[in-house]
Write a structure and sequence with these properties.
binds acetyl coenzyme *A, five-stranded mixed β-sheet, alpha+beta, about 325 residues
Length: about 325
């Protein structure tokens, strides 16, 4: 049993089909839906998103990100003893995307399961993996966020379809004698189910209800800004740290205005905010590990830095993880 868990490698993957705002606006215009690069950039900070090809599933994106994370950590697939995939867009109703991904990586035998907390999914999954490592149930975990949100978008609803994209990010989390993950904080409040949901389900061989994403953007915006500050403060308190100890803030990459407002509330200069939402839009559970991997690989984030990861999303769910890289 080890006292701590620590991220030893990161990876990410975006499917090759990239649509700039102008590309998407042109496609939507053919269906009579009007939007513009100017509107999308000004309200969200998003400039492009990636969409997976029809035959590509969440487990494919997740496996690609996981391979890169294992390579970065110097860990072989055969050494992995836990796989957690955070996703709201699994390949099938069951089994889990984690089981399908496990097989694609050539791994067999270790525990593998999905965590469903929408855009807070990666923070939830990392917290669960940390706990399993600290209790001795696992020593080398793959924690993955992977999504094909393009499959659940209503391309006739311009208030939502311009916001989301597909992608995956992954980390290897290993048992460690030194920290590592310093503190975690998770929350949910189911009374807000209706403000962000995909209300449909499968029943009697048919899709029952509407299987496309519905969002009350302004309600989500207001809630997100408040709970992200609360989660960050609670996590810092648990770790005995203050705002000033944060080297980098990596919030869920949904909207630049929510992210900047969170940084301001934590009295962090915007130069400490990791931003990749411009390049891939909101990739739900994949967005935090995508941003983390991008910043690690371009040298922005260095080993030893203190990171605050923050998720918020449907449920309503929210949470934070403070860690030393
Ligand atoms: N292109 C052009 N115009 C648009 C578009 C679009 N894509 N979408 C909406 N509009 C129009 C509206 O019709 C409205 O026009 P009107 O004034 O003539 O009625 C106008 O723009 C303003 O619409 P609002 O909805 O008031 O715009 P708002 O400033 O609230 O921005 C947005 C909308 C971007 C969705 C914002 O509310 C937001 O970011 N909310 C948070 C969403 C979010 O972060 N969700 C993810 C978190 S959880 C998860 O990731 C699953």
């Amino acid at each position: 049993m080890s006292p701590y868990s620590r991220i030893t490698g990161t990876g990410s993957y975006l499917p090759p089909r990239r649509l700039s705002n102008a590309d998407l606006a042109a496609e939507l215009a053919t269906q009579g839906v009007e939007t513009s690069d100017e509107w999308i950039v000004e309200r969200t900070g998003i400039r492009a998103r990636h969409f997976a090809a029809p035959e590509v599933c969440t487990s494919d994106l997740g496996a690609a990100a996981a391979r890169k994370a294992m390579e970065a950590a110097g860990v072989l697939p055969s050494e992995i003893d836990l796989i957690i995939v955070a996703t709201s867009t699994p390949d099938m109703v069951f089994p889990s995307a984690a089981c399908i991904l496990q097989h694609k990586l050539g791994i067999a035998g270790c525990a593998a399961f999905d965590v469903q907390a929408v855009c807070s999914g990666f923070v939830y999954a990392l917290t669960v993996a940390d706990a399993l490592i600290k209790t001795g149930s696992a020593t080398k975990a793959l924690v993955i966020g992977a999504e094909v949100f393009s499959r659940i978008l209503d391309f006739k609803d311009r208030t939502t379809c311009v916001l989301f994209g597909d992608g995956a990010g992954a980390v290897v989390l290993e048992a460690s004698e030194t920290p590592g993950i310093l503190a975690t904080d998770l929350h949910a409040d189911g009374k807000y189910v209706g403000i962000l949901c995909v209300p449909g389900t499968v029943s009697g061989g048919q899709v029952l209800g509407d299987p496309l994403l519905k969002m009350d953007g302004q309600a989500v915006f207001k809630l997100a800004v408040g709970v992200l500050e609360d989660a960050a403060r609670a996590t810092l308190a648990k770790a005995g740290k203050t705002d000033a100890d944060i080297d980098w803030l990596i919030p869920h990459q949904a909207n630049i205005r929510i992210m900047q407002s969170t940084a301001k509330k934590l009295k962090l200069p915007l130069s400490k905010l990791i931003v990749t939402v411009d390049q891939h839009g909101n990739t739900s559970a994949a967005s935090i590990p995508l941003a983390l991997d991008t910043a690690v690989r371009n040298g922005t984030i260095q080993k030893g830095d203190t990171l605050m990861l923050e998720g918020v999303g449907g449920g309503f769910t929210w949470g934070a993880v403070l860690l030393n890289l």
